[in-house]
Amino acid sequence: MSGTSSSATSASPSASAAATGTTRAVPRLRKRREHSAGRPRRSVLLTVLTGLILVYTVVPLLWLVISATKTQEGLADSSGLWFADDFALWSNIHDTFTYHDGIFVRWLLNTLLYVGLGAGGATFLAILGGYALAKFDFPGKRGVFAVVIGAVAVPGTALAVPTFLMFSKMGLTDTPWAVIIPSLVSPFGLYLMWVFATEAIPVELLEAARIDGAGEARTFFKVALPLLAPGIVTVLLFTTVATWNNYFLPLIMLKDPDWYPLTLGLDAWNNQAQTIGGDVIFNLVITGSLLTIVPLIAAFLLLQKYWQSGLAAGSVKE
Amino acid sequence: MRRTTSRLMRGLAVLSVLALGATACGGSDDDSSGSKPVSSGDIQAALKKGGSVTVWAWEPTLKTVAADFQKKYPKVKINLVAERSGDKHYTALSNAISAEKGVPDVAQVEYFALGQYALTKGLSDLAPYGADKLKSKYTAGPWNAVTQGSDKVWGLPMDSGPMALYYNKKVFDKYKIAVPTTWDEYVEAARKLHKADPKVYIANDAGDAGFTTSMLWQAGSRPYKVDGTKVSVDFSDAGAKKYTDTWQKLIDEKLLAPINGWTDDWYKGLGDGTIATLASGAWMPANFVTGVPNAAGDWRAAPMPAWTKGDKASAENGGSSLTLPELGKNKELAYAFVEYANSGAGVQSRVKEGAFPATNAELQADSFLNTEFEYFGGQKANEIFADSAANVADDWSYLPFQQYANSIFNDTVGKAYVGNTKLTDGLKSWQDASVKYGKEQGFTVE
């Protein structure tokens, strides 16, 4: 029974009822076919929600970029989401880099040091640990699993104060080591590497390498490491962002401003506005914040494709 | 987000203060060594020998002072650590003292926080160095703050904050409103201003412990009585009633802008005329110049409104001292620097850079009184400030745990600004919470 429009126009009321019934059925059928796999269903509600979230995420960034073009006076005089009369981005950038004898540059270098050694080291340790846990069997593995999962659940902030007391006993507070050493541990990175290594490295490949006479170290570096590349980038991104943005740990560990990372330094600048006789430099705080997130945005854009494939690893059974 | 962080910081500050108390009790047996007098000859010899002094202080004019001092005593190196202030400064200081490592030789401590460090023996008594002979140099308010009714001197006053009323002349002129001289007139002016332009508020106040205690001070209230470890807290005296009656009107009629001080909104409001007056310390002009550059020429200073017409009583708001932490090193050098900065030649150069002195000589100098403030349209504002400094009652004291008390202000009195709680009830719950904490800390609280 084909419900065409010609049959719907025919006189009999029962036929017309049947026809309407069919005409209703056809689009329903077509709809179901439309949102299968390739062509997702369009939904006004979802579009609006996505739009709202887009505004929610983009507006602060836009505000930051626009505000970075204003002087201290312009910030107070103009609306937040449009430019002031004076375009001061270049002079703001210049001032940010030269204020207080160029301490911003020093903070930038400190941050790079902490990220390089801390995040880099954390990634390296996560690769080693994750690979070992994924591909070797040893007694107590379940215990290690429990500890790692437990450690993922403990926020770093909660450990900061005990770590401070421990480090101060060892005489390490107020040195760069106080920031670098705790950053070396990334339970989440280890877990991610573990899962990724389980999926990405076929056991047969390792066995083949061993049969061909490669030592464990050589098997790891020549065979396993290249296969782990997307996972490594993912973990590196996570640890980099975590170390780059870390505020609380350096806050309690460091007293000497010469060792501050950017987060603490910008906060110190911001606090000047709350100080008797302090220099109010909101324009430099804002420009400094913008400069601080530029490297992170660049890292995300450049490494995005590795990052996405890394996140999805293990989600589909082949 | 901001709120969570600050709560976290508070928690941390409390934690470190507890730790500080514990270590201070343990390490106080060498108490007698500190009370040996140090002659000026000893200090001169130390200066000749040289060494380094680490100073934790955010006061911006100290940069020049440190440079001058090193020029005068080339063998001494002043290592000025200046990037932290407020809560973070005290957290770092308490942490260092409790860890007994990295304690600075000189630390800036605000008057309200001095009691805490003095009581836990975190600071050296400066009287043996000759600081007790400097009393006559300072105005009464700050000197009372660094001595706290004892013969010990916990620091030398660096600056002071006699209060004044700053007002936006442009706004007052526009609506033809007279500058209030009493707090009753102030309430009247608040009504008129807000009626003339609903966007204009007489002041911002979202609950600020420092401001409220200063207002109580001016109104003649003395809520805190401190005698060693015996303290009492009472917000029910006549002075407190004067303050709550007046301020409750402003809150009830929604005449206060709900803006927190020191935020970017606050600076914006001071600049665009939303906030028409500000009762604050004499150090404020420097912050006006850098924080509110677009309103240059709009603002003026006036004496604080009086509680009864003709009364000249004033109060202090803010201000800090330089202290010698007990665990610091190079004591003679450190003291020499503190004296240079706060009572010697350093004061002159700091005043030149906009600091407000605590010393009589500078406050009474013609050059100081005749300084014309470009920002205030050429007004000789120091005359008003100096007058205010002379009229500060010197019998005010803060709690030995004022830092903690201030940290819970918003959870208690702050409710009066946002809900149906009355200011009096808010103060009562602040009192109860302070008493409870004091008892827990081992104070005898009445």
From TrEMBL, chain A:
<keyword id="KW-1003">Cell membrane</keyword>
<dbReference type="InterPro" id="IPR000515">
    <property type="entry name" value="MetI-like"/>
</dbReference>
<dbReference type="GO" id="GO:0005886">
    <property type="term" value="C:plasma membrane"/>
</dbReference>
<dbReference type="InterPro" id="IPR035906">
    <property type="entry name" value="MetI-like_sf"/>
</dbReference>
<keyword id="KW-1133">Transmembrane helix</keyword>
<dbReference type="GO" id="GO:0055085">
    <property type="term" value="P:transmembrane transport"/>
</dbReference>
<protein>
    <submittedName>
        <fullName>Carbohydrate ABC transporter permease</fullName>
    </submittedName>
</protein>
<feature type="transmembrane region" description="Helical">
    <location>
        <begin position="145"/>
        <end position="165"/>
    </location>
</feature>
<comment type="similarity">
    <text>Belongs to the binding-protein-dependent transport system permease family.</text>
</comment>
<feature type="domain" description="ABC transmembrane type-1">
    <location>
        <begin position="108"/>
        <end position="303"/>
    </location>
</feature>
<feature type="transmembrane region" description="Helical">
    <location>
        <begin position="280"/>
        <end position="303"/>
    </location>
</feature>
<feature type="compositionally biased region" description="Basic residues">
    <location>
        <begin position="27"/>
        <end position="36"/>
    </location>
</feature>
<feature type="transmembrane region" description="Helical">
    <location>
        <begin position="177"/>
        <end position="198"/>
    </location>
</feature>
<keyword id="KW-0812">Transmembrane</keyword>
<feature type="transmembrane region" description="Helical">
    <location>
        <begin position="43"/>
        <end position="66"/>
    </location>
</feature>
<dbReference type="Pfam" id="PF00528">
    <property type="entry name" value="BPD_transp_1"/>
</dbReference>
<feature type="transmembrane region" description="Helical">
    <location>
        <begin position="112"/>
        <end position="133"/>
    </location>
</feature>
<keyword id="KW-0813">Transport</keyword>
<feature type="region of interest" description="Disordered">
    <location>
        <begin position="1"/>
        <end position="36"/>
    </location>
</feature>
<feature type="compositionally biased region" description="Low complexity">
    <location>
        <begin position="1"/>
        <end position="23"/>
    </location>
</feature>
<feature type="transmembrane region" description="Helical">
    <location>
        <begin position="219"/>
        <end position="244"/>
    </location>
</feature>
<keyword id="KW-0472">Membrane</keyword>
UniProtKB/TrEMBL annotation, chain B:
<dbReference type="InterPro" id="IPR006061">
    <property type="entry name" value="SBP_1_CS"/>
</dbReference>
<feature type="signal peptide">
    <location>
        <begin position="1"/>
        <end position="24"/>
    </location>
</feature>
<comment type="similarity">
    <text>Belongs to the bacterial solute-binding protein 1 family.</text>
</comment>
<protein>
    <submittedName>
        <fullName>Sugar ABC transporter substrate-binding protein</fullName>
    </submittedName>
</protein>
<dbReference type="InterPro" id="IPR006059">
    <property type="entry name" value="SBP"/>
</dbReference>
<dbReference type="InterPro" id="IPR050490">
    <property type="entry name" value="Bact_solute-bd_prot1"/>
</dbReference>
<keyword id="KW-0732">Signal</keyword>
<keyword id="KW-0813">Transport</keyword>
<dbReference type="Pfam" id="PF01547">
    <property type="entry name" value="SBP_bac_1"/>
</dbReference>
<dbReference type="GO" id="GO:0055085">
    <property type="term" value="P:transmembrane transport"/>
</dbReference>
